[in-house]
Amino acid sequence: MAHEKSAPRTVHLDAGQVRTLAHPLRMRLLGTLRVDGPATATSLAEKLGTNTGATSYHLRQLAEVGLVTEDPDRGTGRQRWWRAEHDISNFEPSEFDDDPDTRAAVRWIEANHIRLWAEQAERWMASADEHSREWRDAAALSDMVLTLDPGRLRALNDELWRVVMRYHEEPPSDGPDARQVHVFLAAFPRVEEKP
What values do phi and psi take at 31, rounded to 5? Predict the structure, then answer.
C-alpha cells in the first residue's frame, strides 16, 4: 500500500499568536509537538528539562491562540494530550510595522531561529565523526553572496521553499539509515559590519 501524506496544515500568524509564541519554552513546546507528535505536559516537561506546572501553563497559553489543542483521541481522565494545531506557521514581518510589541516579538522569534540553527549546526559538527561517511558527505553547510533586488530575493526564497515542501510532501525515507534532518533556509541582505 502506498504511503499518502496529507498536505501540511499551515497558519498565517496574527499579532496575538506572534506575541504568544515569542517565549523560549513555548517555542520549544510547539516545535517538539510538531516534530515528535502528541504528548502530555509531563512527558514534554521530562523531555525539555522543565517542570510540569510551567509546561501545562505554557501549553494553555498556546492553546488560547490556536497553536496547540488537546488531542481528543488520546488521554484518559486527568491525563491531557496535546498536539500542534498546524505543521507550519508563517508571517510577514512588515505586517506588524505599526505595532511595536509585536514587532519586538518578531525580532525575538527571528533571533531565536538563528540561535536554534547555530545550536543544531554545532551539535552536528561536534558529533560528525561518530556518523557514517555517507551522512558526513550528505550533510552540507554552505553560503554564497548573490546580488539581487527584493523581488528576486523573494523569488529565490519562494523557490527554495517549494523544493523543501516537495520533499516534505513525498513519503518519508524508510530505509535503515533514514533519520530526521534539519533544514534551515535563510537568505537576507548582507549588512556590512560597522567598525
Answer: -60, -40
